[in-house]
Amino acid sequence: MKKIKIEIIELFENAKATKEFEFIQVLMNYKSMGSLRSMSNLYEWFDALEFYKALYEKHTGNEKYRIGCLIYSTFFESSDFYNILGSLCRIQLGYRSSSYLFFKTKKSERLLGTGEKIGMISELLDDSDNNEISRFFNENHFKEIRNTFFHSAYTLIDDHYQLFDSESIVIDGVGRNYFDVNEFLLPKILNIIEFFDQFRECFLSHFASYQENKKVKGNFPNPVVATILGSKHGLKGFTMEKTVQFFGEWHDSGIYYDEKMKMWTGKNIRFDFPQKETVEIDETLHRYENKDNIKNQNEFWNLLEKIIERNNKPELLRILNLLVKFGDVRYNNWKEEQNNYKKDSLKRYIKPFYEKAIEIKLPVDFTDLKILLKEIE
Description:
The protein is an alpha+beta fold. It contains 15 helices and ten strands. β9 and β10 form a beta hairpin. The radius of gyration is 23 Å and the shape is flat. The two termini are about 45 Å apart.
């Protein structure tokens, strides 16, 4: 875990060094006017896991196992946790942060599963070379544990955890419907506690580090000169110089914490979410246009759904080109494969890209794509 903890520290520090104005917006986690707790579940997540940790240390036997499962399941649930990790990766890569990392569509107006949330940031972790954090999720997250525990679809027998109404959990390449808690689960709970402690410490210490005002350059979404507001209690927001005009005169704007009302509020500002979404989609498309291939496709398909829903022709044309580009990568891999058994299995990875490109129905000649589809079918 030492390497992973170092990478968490470096992720925060690298994001701050790259674009500090974006970095403090991640710490503020601002979505709308409100108190720290009414805008986000992040602080409740911090406090709840601290409470569960105390119970975990206090108990033994099955009681300890149950609290351990609660820590395990709760840790992987928080959407803001993934928003923050993903946004820090985006900043490190030179892009803007996001308070809603997952593009919401009418098709998916539901709470995402833990595996889906991890999938949404996996490509960002890979792109920003945060390989240790990526490895942490790969080695410690098993959706079968979270699902069976939160749905009470498990039982404890001595030191064993048995799953009911669930897919088998794959351990060392073997599917099982039970596992030894001490050998398999407790080491992962320890890893999770260490990851959580480091993440929480980094977030809160950086928030508290802003003791004085500091001028920085940034974008909101246009270039601005901003003053980060500091205090003895840490970050209190930011103001931007001469960004709003009233009756021919320019005035400052910003987001700041109102001590009397105990809430985040805005001054001469409003969030233009359609514009913000357009900027984020443009940057995400740009990121994929600079990639030769993709490993984890969750974020990409989510982006595709949002672009189809928006029905913006330039965005549709860009995502169509990406579908063909990544489909061609898989097609070429299929053509070059010499093992006939493996070659046959590679076909299913090509079809979704070509088929989705054709479904977009832009005035483009799809003759070549249809020929390729017929070839692999």
